[in-house]
């Protein structure tokens, strides 16, 4: 896709967090950057409702990645950011959730900075915040857990390894991003390191969106229940948290009356 308009001055890149999908969860700063953008390079998981808020003349470029599937190469995304900005264009690099959480942000900043292009980070609501709100819980609670780990289910080398012994301790809570394909691996590692098989596990698909779904299970049944659920949207896994029943009932009510 070609952009023909050019400018004398150098362009600019805003690294913007699109939030979890609900357009009402965009920050005002993110919305302003989005509306004045001339080019938007966006992730695959950005909702159509959020993309619809872009300026009418903005060029939208899908540079999405899929875990273990066809994806844009990171170096190609870096090069495209630089190419558009050097044409004098105002570029938004739109990332789902918050760009600072598992977003490959540093590599893109390095590329833009090396080309002498100005940039800023506009944070967004990360999936964990939206997902935990969807199940009516808090990420930390006095007397339950004083910390929470943000983990990725896989990295560039495959399934990601973590400190399984620490995670297996009673009371541990973790928000696991990109954990669907690695669910059986995570389950096995935790059980191998002594985790209680009855530990609650909650999976939230399409957090904050009208089609949000909640799957309540345990570590012992996590992989089998996930396979039976046919969840195919973006899903966050909470290890060590179960939803409040009122929050789960509200999700079911919204689904039935959509």
List the defining traits of the structure above.
disordered N terminus, 2 domains, five-stranded mixed sheet, S-adenosyl-L-methionine, 4pyrrol_Mease, Cobalt-precorrin-4 Transmethylase, domain 1, Methyltransferase, Cobalt-precorrin-4 Transmethylase, Domain 2, alpha/beta, five-stranded parallel sheet, 258 residues, transferase, elongated
The total of helices stands at 9
CATH topology description of the largest domain: Methyltransferase, Cobalt-precorrin-4 Transmethylase, Domain 2
User: What's the number of domains?
Assistant: 2
As residue ranges, the low-confidence spans are 1-8
CATH superfamily of the largest domain: Tetrapyrrole methylase, C-terminal domain
The radius of gyration computed from the alpha-carbon positions, rounded to a whole number of angstroms, is: 20 Å
Instruction: Please outline the major beta sheet.
Output: 5 strands, parallel
User: What is the N-to-C order of secondary-structure elements (H for helix, E for strand)?
Assistant: EHEHEHEHEHEEEHEHEEHEH
Strand content: 15-25%
What percent of residues adopt helix (DSSP H or I)?
25-40%
Structural class: alpha/beta
CATH class of the largest domain: Alpha Beta
Mean pLDDT, to the nearest integer, reads 88
Widest β-sheet, arrangement of strands: 3-2-4-1-5
Distance between the termini: 37 Å
State the total count of DSSP E strands. 12
- Shape estimate: elongated
Which CATH architecture of the largest domain is right? Answer: 2-Layer Sandwich
Structure summarized in a few sentences:
Belongs to the precorrin methyltransferase family. The chain has nine helices and twelve strands.
